[in-house]
């Protein structure tokens, strides 16, 4: 790794850590919430590694198709889930697409916690509830919460 890459990665880690500290402070000071520090650290490390991988892909000029969303198998609905937390609110989002990449429907809703792992888990649960209510039969649920998906996929050593 070059000196420049090392500096960029250190800057990225510092920026992500400061953002996590700020969000944690707001959770505790303004909402009186308790926080799972281990889960926050795990999510922080995951975000860092994910950003480094994307940066490497872009630097190596990997085609955008390999970085962007991919279509599900024929007859399958793919639901992408995410949670976004700011200093004063948290939103969950789910987007359903068919096997051609067309958006079937999108959903958003406010959520009352600002714990990252709780929010990501709630987004996944909500997607499962949407699958049932929309009567989707063959589905794939994807998101960026590696900790949550590892746990759901049975990798219990990586879960808190």
UniProtKB/TrEMBL annotation:
Lineage: superkingdom: Eukaryota
InterPro entries in the cross-refs: RNase_H-like_EbsB-rel (IPR052929), RNaseH-like_sf (IPR012337), RNaseH_domain (IPR002156), RNaseH_sf (IPR036397)
Residues annotated as domain RNase H type-1: 80-155
Name the UniProt record assigns to this protein: RNase H type-1 domain-containing protein
GO molecular function: nucleic acid binding; RNA-DNA hybrid ribonuclease activity
One Pfam family in the UniProt entry: RVT_3
